Amino acid sequence: MDGVTMEKVTFDLAQTPLRAVNHYLHHNLTQTGGQAIEILNPDGAHNIAVGLNAPVEVKILGHAGYYAASMNQLANVTIAGNVGTGVAENMMSGRVYVKGFASVSAGASAHGGLLIIDGDASLRCGISLKGADIVVGGSVGSFAAFMAQAGRIVVCGNAGEALGDSLYEAVIYVRGSIKSLGADAQLEPMSEADYATVAELLAKAGFSHNPQDFKRVASAKQLYHWNEERE
To answer: What residue range is the signal peptide (predicted)?
Structure first.
């Protein structure tokens, strides 16, 4: 959106119902962009800025509840606080930036776009990921990337138990320690392409870690086919 003069619209959820705000976001945005939306006093409300489908800037100035910026397309959503369950769930494109911590299932089933979390992410970060990129500045809880099918996850801190359980084609990069790997997940050597990928994603997220410090976790591909044991 460089070079575009932003038309700034401000909503205060202490005065305006969330339903009215989301109605505006769904029906009154220009598809060509050029708008900046600021949402004040979110106070942990659920379903803020869901289902956006326009290249607009949205800033949520405070903590958000469940499913903030879920089903996002094209929009650039920044949340200046912590978020509840399912931030950027089923995101298709655009960017969602959490300047705090994320609860369970961050980026669940996201098909595209970029999710950035400055702090830690709780359980099941990137569950059933389908192609998006996730960069976590802190650590992730257990079962991160469970059944992740495509996409990339960069974890700048540590990973909990069962990382990458039942992983498909998604790849995970972890800078810190890994408590345990899930079924069919394995550590693999980092290639030059992997280092380049990590460097690219760190740059997009604004983190300055050394890509050489990261480990690669991918699928061993032993669960791709059902094997029935017979006596």
So the answer is: none
Question: In this structure, which amino acid lies at residue 122?
Answer: S
* 78-81 contacts at long range (C-beta below 8 A, 24 or more positions apart): 81/42
Q: Of 73, 99, 171, which Cα lies nearest the Cα of 88?
A: 73
- The answer to whether 49 touches 68, Cβ cutoff 8 Å, is yes
Q: Give me 43's structure tokens.
A: 């106070």
Kindly state the DSSP code that residue 212 receives in the 8-state scheme: G
Q: What mean pLDDT value characterizes the chain? A: 94
For residues 82 and 66, is the Cβ–Cβ distance under 8 A?
no
**pLDDT tens digits for 98-156?**
999 999 999 999 999 999 999 999 999 999 999 999 999 999 999 999 999 999 999 99
**By the 8 A CB rule, do 153 and 170 touch?**
yes
Q: How many CA atoms lie within 13 A of 193 on its CB side?
A: 2
- Of the candidates 91, 75, 166, the residue with the CA atom closest to the CA atom of residue 134: 91
Q: What is the DSSP letter of 25?
A: H
230 has pLDDT over 60: no
CA distances (Å), 103 to each of 87, 106, 121, 122, 187, in order? Answer: 8, 7, 6, 5, 26
Q: Model pTM?
A: 0.94
